[in-house]
User: Which sequence fits this backbone?
């Protein structure tokens, strides 16, 4: 597991015309999809991040889970301490590639209504996260 690394977000034309690789944060904490919600919340708090990259048993990225998603699952009526991340991930994706243009990635984020996208290589391994600047 790695610590979250942040990079300053440029305000120049790279933000509009560059690629995802120009602005993505390097892969932060990556957790396995069999991790429980409680443990994931602890990892997230320790890493001081709002999301975690989730991978399957073979190391392929299956999605991104946000603090709000974990909290909602924990506060739900069907919650037990055995609920795993794979149980709350709705579907695989969306994802983006490091060579995707920022315009294309922005369109995907707006269409999918997400504020962060996992960036994966051609094999599905996580490279980082593209997140909206706050």
Assistant:
């Amino acid at each position: 597991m790695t610590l979250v690394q942040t990079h300053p977000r440029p305000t120049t034309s790279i933000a509009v015309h560059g690629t995802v690789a120009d602005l993505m944060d390097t892969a932060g904490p990556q957790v396995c999809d069999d991790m429980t919600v409680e443990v994931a919340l602890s990892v997230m708090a320790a890493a001081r991040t709002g999301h975690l990259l989730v991978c399957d048993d073979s190391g392929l990225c299956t999605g991104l889970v946000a603090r709000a998603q974990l909290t909602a699952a924990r506060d739900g009526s069907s919650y037990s301490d055995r609920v795993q991340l794979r149980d709350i991930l709705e579907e695989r994706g969306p994802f983006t590639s490091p060579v995707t243009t920022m315009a294309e990635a922005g369109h995907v984020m707006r269409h999918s209504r997400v504020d962060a996208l996992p960036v994966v290589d051609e094999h599905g391994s996580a490279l980082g996260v593209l997140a909206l600047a706050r």
